Amino acid sequence: MKSALVIALVILVVLWYLSFLATRLDRLHHRVETSWANLDGLLQRRAAIALEIARSDFSDPASSMLLTSAAYQAREASVQERSAAEMVLSGALGLLVIDAQEHASSSEKLLLGELEVLTSKIRIAIAIHTDAVSSTQMVRKKFAIRFFRLAGTAPLPVTYEFEFDAL
To answer: What SUPFAM superfamilies does its record include (predicted)?
Structure first.
């Protein structure tokens, strides 16, 4: 009788622990999704500002065309192409911003200021996203999660190359 009670108690503790792990993993996956949604929104806003800068008067036609192309590629890129497109946009913005700061009007300086603020927000969002991804990957490596398949069909979250690019 006593051994049956101990076995039942052990089973309840194991079930509680598995439930705890599954809930924690679900929260981590949710955190990855929300951090990516935030980062994606900021990157879309950066592409929109890049288009505004490209249409302004202080960029020459070649730079404007390059920046417009890079911004549209970044906005329309699929998940597989996103890294390359964001790195191209970063490079195009970097080239244009260096030239533009010398002879920009007040409205153009406002755009450049907004871009600078947005870039710092993107850096923070990237740090939050990479932290969420690494935490989720670390938890998914646990034996109990792999053995009992607590992750279900959720894909393993990944970071993208542009997240390590200097924005």
So the answer is: LemA-like
